[in-house]
């Protein structure tokens, strides 16, 4: 364990020495990471087959779930109870004052 820690500290000190030398000479070290494909003005890399099949399966399951529950539990959309008839409401229930009220 001490050896691995010593190697880590040695790498960090080496990086610091290189960075300080670069700033003294006016040069800058730019870290270039090549962890992805470059796709400027072209289509990106095609995903792997497993990712494409997994996306299709997940999308199919999602649509099955939505349509199944829309068919079998449509009350979530339409409501559980019948909509009341507004023509049966009285003025008192609606908060409308009487017509014979003096102004």
From TrEMBL:
Any one of the GO BP annotations: mitochondrial respiratory chain complex I assembly
Annotated membrane topology: Peripheral membrane protein
Subcellular location: Mitochondrion inner membrane
Organism superkingdom: Eukaryota
GO CC list: mitochondrial inner membrane; respiratory chain complex I
InterPro entries: NDUFB2_animal
Principal cellular location given in the protein's record: mitochondrion
Keywords recorded for this protein, A-Z: Electron transport, Membrane, Mitochondrion, Mitochondrion inner membrane, Respiratory chain, Transit peptide, Transport
Keyword field contains Aminoacyl-tRNA synthetase: no
Function text: Accessory subunit of the mitochondrial membrane respiratory chain NADH dehydrogenase (Complex I), that is believed not to be involved in catalysis. Complex I functions in the transfer of electrons from NADH to the respiratory chain. The immediate electron acceptor for the enzyme is believed to be ubiquinone.
Entry similarity comment: Belongs to the complex I NDUFB2 subunit family.
Subunit details: Complex I is composed of 45 different subunits.
Protein name in UniProt: NADH dehydrogenase [ubiquinone] 1 beta subcomplex subunit 2, mitochondrial
Protein source organism: Anopheles farauti
């Amino acid at each position: 364990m001490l050896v691995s820690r010593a190697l880590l500290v040695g790498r960090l000190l080496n990086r610091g020495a290189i960075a300080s030398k670069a700033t003294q000479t006016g040069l800058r070290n730019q870290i270039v990471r090549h962890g992805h494909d470059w796709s400027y003005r072209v289509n990106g890399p095609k995903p792997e087959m497993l990712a494409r099949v997994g996306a299709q399966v997940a999308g199919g399951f999602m649509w099955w779930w939505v349509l199944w529950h829309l068919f079998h539990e449509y009350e979530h959309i339409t409501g559980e109870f019948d909509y009341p008839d507004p023509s049966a409401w009285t003025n008192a229930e609606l908060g409308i004052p009487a017509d014979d009220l003096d102004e």
